[in-house]
Amino acid sequence: MCVFFGSYYRDVGTRLFYGEEWCETPGSGALYQGTTSCVDSLSCVDGVDWEQPDAGVVRELCFMHTCEPASFPLRGLLKCRSFYCGNQCWSEQGRQYDSPECQMCVAQSCTTEQTACTSATCAAN
């Protein structure tokens, strides 16, 4: 795995917008080079067993296997779901992505992101 860190200097002494600092603005972030579609990568991420000690590595591999056209749609849907549907998709029992409440919230709040993910397939080279 490769990690890139950078720094910046602003002569006025102010920081960039938080999302820009952390590559969280639309169209920023990693472009993966795998072969897995957005829907399949989402299924992989959602299927991680967090009771296992290597869960973080398994989750990261889900991202690494994502193909380039699915990279931004996957991140967009995950961010939308987390931001708008956190209460519906999480409970004291853990992640509840298959629950009717979560599915309804995502369908209502993340329509654009869900459509983009569904459409983001990997073209054959």
Helices, strands, pairings?
Elements: H1 18-21, H2 38-46, H3 55-64, H4 68-89, E1 90-91, E2 94-95, H5 100-109, H6 111-119
Antiparallel strand pairs: 1-2
Helix pairs in contact: 2-3, 2-4, 4-5, 4-6
Written overview of the protein:
The protein has 125 residues and is mainly alpha-helical. The chain has one domain. The protein has six helices and two strands; from the N terminus they run ααααββαα. It has helices at residues 18-21, 38-46, 55-64, 68-89, 100-109, 111-119, and strands at residues 90-91, 94-95. A two-stranded antiparallel sheet has the order 1-2. The protein is globular, with a radius of gyration of 16 Å.
- Can you tell me the overall shape? globular
Derived from helix and strand composition plus strand pairing, the structural class reads mainly alpha
The CA-CA distance between the termini, in Å, is: 24 Å
Summarize model confidence as the mean pLDDT.
Answer: 85
Reported for the largest beta sheet, the result is: 2 strands, antiparallel
Number of helices: 6
Q: Order of strands across the biggest sheet? A: 1-2
Helix content: 40-55%
Give unreliable regions as ranges. none
Mind telling me the C-alpha Rg?
16 Å
Strand content: under 5%
Succession of helices and strands: HHHHEEHH
Number of domains: 1
Could you give the count of β-strands?
Answer: 2
